[in-house]
Amino acid sequence: MSRAAPRCLLIAALLVSSAGPGPRAAGSPASSPAADVAFLDALTWGATPSAFAQLETEGRARWLHGQLHPPAGARLPPDAQAAIDALTPPGSLFDRAQALDAQAKAFKDIQDPEAKKAGQHAFQMALNTAARNAASAWVLRALYSPDQLRERLTWFWFNRFNVHQGKATLRAAVGDYVDTAIRPHALGRFRDLLMASLRHPAMLRYLDNADNAAGRINENYAREIMELHTMGVGSGYSQADVEALARILTGVGIDLKPEDPKLRPEHAADFRRDGLFEFNPNRHDYGDKVFLGTAIQGRGWPEVEEAVDLIVHHPATATNVSRALATYILGQPPDDPLVARLATVFTRTDGDIAAVVEALVREPAFAAERGGGFKDPVRYVFSAVRMAYDQRVILNPGPVLGWLNRLGEGLFNRSTPDGYPLASAAWSGPGQLATRFEIARQIGSGSAGLFSAGLFKPPAPDQPEQPAFPVLANGLYYTAVSGTLSAATRAALAQAVSPQDWNTLYLASPEFMR
Amino acid sequence: MNRRDLIRAAAALGLSTVAGRVWAAPKADARLLVVFLRGAYDAANVVIPTGSDFYYRSRPNLAVAKPDAADPKAALALDADWSLHPALRETILPLYARGQAAFVPFAGTDDLTRSHFETQDTIEMGQTIGAVRDYNSGFMARLAAELTRVRPIAFTDQMPLIFRGGETVPNIAINGVGKPGIDDRQAKLIAAMWSGTKLAGSVTEGFRVRDEVYRSISDHAAQADRGAVSPKGFELSARRIGRLMRDSFNLGFVDVGGWDTHVNQGAGAGYLADRLGELGRGLSGFAEEIGPGWSDTVVVVLSEFGRTFRENGNRGTDHGHGSVYWILGGGVRGGRIAGPQVRADEANLFQNRDYTVLTNYRGLLGGLFRRLYGLDQASLRRIFPSADPADLALL
């Protein structure tokens, strides 16, 4: 046998070869195992033997329909669900924020410096743990949710409506933000997504709208809604529009207190709250505004609804959002006619994200890209871990989070509101590639010896790490991947001196990085 | 005699018109580090117009007190009109006193979007506003193309736009350097897999720089620290950059974030003061590490725009326009506030909210490059198309 991979890696080969090909979508381009792997790579966090088998059973049309219209609730494998449950804090975000606030206030009044320091430390630790657990839960969902397309888009939309855990006490809110504002709308209506982020305390704090009030205008959020979240810079709004939107958004903020604020009687009826979100008429500028050429009568919260309608129905939003979505899924910027076709779908369906994605998948450019271009770090790491362990649930997401941070694309770690770049050129610099090869070695080595990646170290400190070996030369590799490798890659793999070495080289190959 | 002296000597002899032809491809013997403060630092509270009553009226909560030897939080006089933030007392003020730091107020771009990202891109590309933007052409890449013996590097986690286009420029996450786990045999096999692909050059360059950086940093770590507190954050980065630019690289870029102070930015003390303190320690640490090479080194500190001259309702400042750039270096003709200026009063505000821009960044940098490298007009035009170099006599 002349294959480069050691014999012990071949066991899984049987898994896939037994799965027969199923029906395929009408008009779908040449379907071969390799094309199906590329199809999965473009729409999931990475092909795996089990995902491939499912696609072969269902066929592309049924598989895609299921991905575009997943059930509302999570339906994770029991091991993954149990791990996520253990990472999910009890109670509502409102309750947790109140408890943290009380904790912060308690040590403020302490006189003894040592006790005060201990109190501050405990408070910071609680925040750090909250953010780390939220990121860990996100990793587990990304790796094991059967609703892979929704997970891919959850990352995309979070990145578009980015918040940074480093600001204020956002560490306590980022998990809730992903789970309640982003994921439920990732394949839904764009307006609902925008509104959910607009009402979430993570966004209101991050872009300072919680401080935006009549006479004390803060235009940070107003500007970024139009520039980054929707229309795009240079698309037709002016500084006057930014200022008008900032005034419209006055009073949209956060309230931690259980009792409602005292309100001036004339606008008391306009008061709204829902969890930590609050619209406080006392802080709102009731003057009339002109926004995007439309006169908006000062009347409280309905101004916000009206402004959001104007933004989401603006042609620039359809174009800009469609372009970003296509760039993300194709792995490179699409041409203008393609964007225009997607924007038409966006407008016709009133911003139905699933419909836009479906239209994109039917585009010839989608098949031509074969798998979504050079992987950004998140795709790279997730796809490697998925391929290496498939349905065996990792016990410790910590190394995954560490790799993402080292590669410069950590979860909740983008400090600026523009989110991480979508263009692959941002991730393929020499230093980034060198770091990526190091991480290829860590993932490829599994739990062997000194170089253990630690993915199967149980959370309890006294429990030993479970033995685990990444099976990259699996059945899917021989069915669908090996035939697509270049001669140079095959020649290098043939010189591997151990299974770990083979894995490292395979994960470092140009083919695995796209 | 170094290269700059040669240029000066040539100019003195009346040979300057042929200098561009004589040295058609100038050598990058000088070092240049560009430091980008991402997020738009509040220039008016760093190089402070303490001579302006309007400044004090505009910033009831944020103004830094006029120079006062008895007040540690008071500004530090630079001249009759301008003062420096007190967080830079031990670091940048001594450079200024030695004539090795100049500040250029009313500096910035002709980009009026007030968007961080748009304007950062504008600066990094250095192209003509209004023309089609080429995202594959940064001005430092174009500068590198005009120089021989140039060894460029980006000290950033990600490949910055400023170095895009042209030859592959390495980038290195300077605070994450560790002993490489990929050994030489694996590196060779990996490079072989990538040979013939578009990224082949990046892969080999990545391994080369990895080894060089690791060697430089581990050599240093092996030396005794003499009990000094080990630096962290930007100070650690900047010291490592100093060592690398002393020995191995001569054209560098680094960015520092955290300047977008919409809320509670503080005055003589507080958030902005802390960030400035770290920046100042980093830059003076860089100068220290580079040692005698400091005399041939120029550091440019810039930011995408300034902030509103008046404070906002949240003890912070919003996106503005004109900024203040810093030019540091052993050979800099500093100790002064350089470039055209107007009084910092209400009548001179741009759109009644921001500093105006009197010195365009392209002209400023073009003029600086001409003096630093002896570049001729044609070279400068390739780096900054249709921009006239402004000679602020900074070198």
In N-to-C order, the SSE pattern of chain B is: HHEEHEEHEHHEHHHEHEEEEHH
**What is the general shape of chain B?**
globular
| Total beta strand runs of chain B | 11
The most extensive interface between chains reads: A-B, 51 and 55 residues
Sum up the structure in keywords.
heterodimer, A: 514 residues, mainly alpha, 5 strands, globular, disordered N terminus, B: 395 residues, alpha/beta, eight-stranded mixed beta sheet, 11 strands, 12% strand
Q: What order do the helices and strands come in, and which of them pair?
A:
The complex is a heterodimer of chains A (514) and B (395).
Chain A: H1 13-17, H2 33-43, H3 49-68, H4 78-87, H5 93-108, H6 113-144, H7 148-160, H8 174-182, H9 190-198, H10 201-206, H11 220-229, H12 239-248, E1 252-254, E2 272-274, E3 277-279, E4 289-291, E5 294-296, H13 301-312, H14 315-330, H15 336-348, H16 353-362, H17 364-369, H18 377-389, H19 398-406, H20 430-445, H21 475-481, H22 487-493, H23 499-507
Antiparallel strand pairs in A: 1-3, 2-3, 4-5
Helix pairs in contact in A: 4-6, 5-6, 6-8, 6-18, 11-12, 14-15, 15-16, 18-20, 20-23
Chain B: H1 3-12, H2 16-22, E1 31-37, E2 47-48, H3 53-58, E3 76-77, E4 83-84, H4 92-97, E5 101-108, H5 116-125, H6 139-145, E6 152-154, H7 184-194, H8 200-222, H9 233-247, E7 251-256, H10 271-290, E8 297-303, E9 323-328, E10 336-337, E11 359-360, H11 361-373, H12 377-383
Parallel strand pairs in B: 1-7, 1-8, 5-10, 5-11, 6-7
Antiparallel strand pairs in B: 2-4, 3-4, 5-9, 8-9
Helix pairs in contact in B: 6-12, 7-8, 9-10
Please sum up the structure shown.
The complex is a heterodimer of chains A (514) and B (395). With 514 residues, chain A is mainly α.
Would you mind describing this structure in some detail?
The complex is a heterodimer of chains A (514) and B (395). By secondary structure, chain A is mostly helical. In chain A, 52% of the residues lie in helices and 3% in strands. Chain A contains 23 helices and five strands. Chain A has helices spanning 13-17, 33-43, 49-68, 78-87, 93-108, 113-144, 148-160, 174-182, 190-198, 201-206, 220-229, 239-248, 301-312, 315-330, 336-348, 353-362, 364-369, 377-389, 398-406, 430-445, 475-481, 487-493, 499-507, and strands spanning 252-254, 272-274, 277-279, 289-291, 294-296. Chain A has a three-stranded antiparallel beta sheet with strand order 1-3-2. In chain A, strands 4-5 form a two-stranded antiparallel sheet. By secondary structure, chain B is α/β, with parallel strands linked by helices. Chain B has helices at residues 3-12, 16-22, 53-58, 92-97, 116-125, 139-145, 184-194, 200-222, 233-247, 271-290, 361-373, 377-383; strands at residues 31-37, 47-48, 76-77, 83-84, 101-108, 152-154, 251-256, 297-303, 323-328, 336-337, 359-360. In chain B, strands 1, 5, 6, 7, 8, 9, 10 and 11 form an eight-stranded mixed beta sheet that branches. Chain B has a three-stranded antiparallel beta sheet with strand order 2-4-3, with no helix packed on it. In chain B, strand 3 (76-77) and strand 4 form a beta hairpin. Chain B is globular. Classes of the chains: A mainly alpha (514), B alpha/beta (395).
